[in-house]
Amino acid sequence: MVATARFSRRCREVDLPVGFGSVRQRLEVGCRKRGCRNGAAGNGVAGKWGCRNGGGMATGERPADKRPGNDSIPLDRPTSARAYSWMLGGKDNFAVDREFMLRTLQGFPECVDIARQNRLFLYRAVRHLVRDAGIRQFIDLGFGLPAEDNVHQVAQRFDPEARVVYVDIDPIVLVHGRALLADNDATAVITADMREPESVVDHPDTRALIDFAEPVALLFLSTGHYLKDSDQVGRGVRHTVRHVIDEVAAPGSYLAFSQIVHDDPARGAEMSELAEGSGIPWQTRTPAEVDALLDGLEPVEPGMVNLRDWRPDPDQPPLEAVPAPLAAFVGATDEELGHYEYGGILRKP
Ligand SMILES: C[S@@+](CC[C@H](N)C(=O)[O-])C[C@H]1O[C@@H](n2cnc3c(N)ncnc32)[C@H](O)[C@@H]1O
To answer: What are phi and psi of 240, to 5 degrees?
Structure first.
């Protein structure tokens, strides 16, 4: 399958075979050959020569990526999207992401299981929302690097008319998302910070795809831990999570939420410190703290739980294989360590 992405006036139109390795290769070739220095509106990713049109998804480090003020793909620190994607079997990550994950796993070996349990929940949650709750429109906040069974693929399997707006702040996610979705009119990928929910609601692509007079599902999956109580951006965590569902969405809308929690706040603080020390904004909460964020909404059975226990389905489609360096960590959550992804689906009455 081939999708076409138009990058800018000075970059040629590039044919992108839909497949992530191919996307990367073609984008790199496209910009390197032309020595492009174009900073005009593209997909927001800085490349080898300072081009903002996609060439930066390289496998190695490049001088342009480190220039001060260059909002390129960071190669000197891990990103949450790339580290998480590696645990799902993704290929678009760098040594800095893998090193961060391996360091984290020394203290918290359960992270591989937690990530994979979250992604399996995503499938069950979207299936439930479309098949059982009749939802036809989704806003996926912090959608991450595409993996198996992305939201629109699950939703459209159960209703081909389902529409999805994908939102993320990470440039590498946006490049891959746009390439994947270029041929799907019922989806859009937008650059926005979920901490400013008004910018998501008011975005023209959101307005074109989402009818807020009808029920909508808002997905905050494995994103709550990036929302810190101390954050200076936006109007606070509660506003981030609740503004759209409370103020904008129609009754009968849903919020699916998950975040990493620890039953022991001291251990949770250690995890937060570890991630923050590597430049990833992070706040592990307790389940009670998450519950407090979601009060007043009606939990769908079985309520807010360890995601492993949210309507488990041994027959659901499997994820990609675990990368070999992570294989030893699989099964760590068989021991109850009090550290898990906590979440569920809630309905606006
Ligand atoms: C762990 S991934 C989760 C991916 C997907 N939701 C899932 O459950 O499989 C978290 C994503 O949230 C994005 N993210 C973090 N903070 C964000 C923010 N303030 N606004 C938008 N996206 C954000 C990251 O870039 C990353 O892609």
So the answer is: -55, -45
Report how many helices (DSSP H) and strands (DSSP E) the chain contains, helices first.
Answer: 11, 10
Confidence bin at 183 (pLDDT 50/70/90) = confident
Q: What spacing in Å lies between the alpha carbon of 145 and ligand 1's midpoint? A: 9
Domain carrying residue 70: 2-75
Looking at the fold, whether 188 and 66 belong to one and the same domain comes out as no
Average pLDDT for residues 326-342, to the nearest whole number? 93
DSSP 8-state code for residue 134: -
Distance separating alpha carbons of residues 53 and 8, to the nearest angstrom: 7
* Cα 25–chain centre separation: 23
Q: What CA–CA distance (Å, rounded) separates 28 from 140? A: 28
Query: Contact, 46 vs 73, CB < 8 A?
Result: yes
Q: What one-letter code names the amino acid at 47?
A: G
Q: If you ran DSSP here, which 8-state letter would residue 53 be given?
A: B
State pTM to two decimals.
0.83
Judge whether 154 and 128 are in contact, CB under 8 Å: no
Alpha carbons 6 and 287: distance in angstroms, whole number: 45
In a shared domain, residues 220 and 341: yes
CA distances from residue 305 to 109, 165, 259, 344 in whole angstroms, order as listed:
20, 26, 11, 7
**41 half-sphere exposure, CB direction, 13 A CA radius:** 1
State which ligand 1 atom lies nearest to the alpha carbon of 122: 8
CA 83–ligand 1 middle distance (angstroms): 11
**pLDDT, tens digit, 9 for 90 and up, residues 274-311:** 999 999 999 999 999 999 999 999 999 999 999 999 99
Q: Are residues 174 and 29 in the same domain?
A: no
Quick check: CB of 142 below 6 Å from ligand 1? Answer: yes
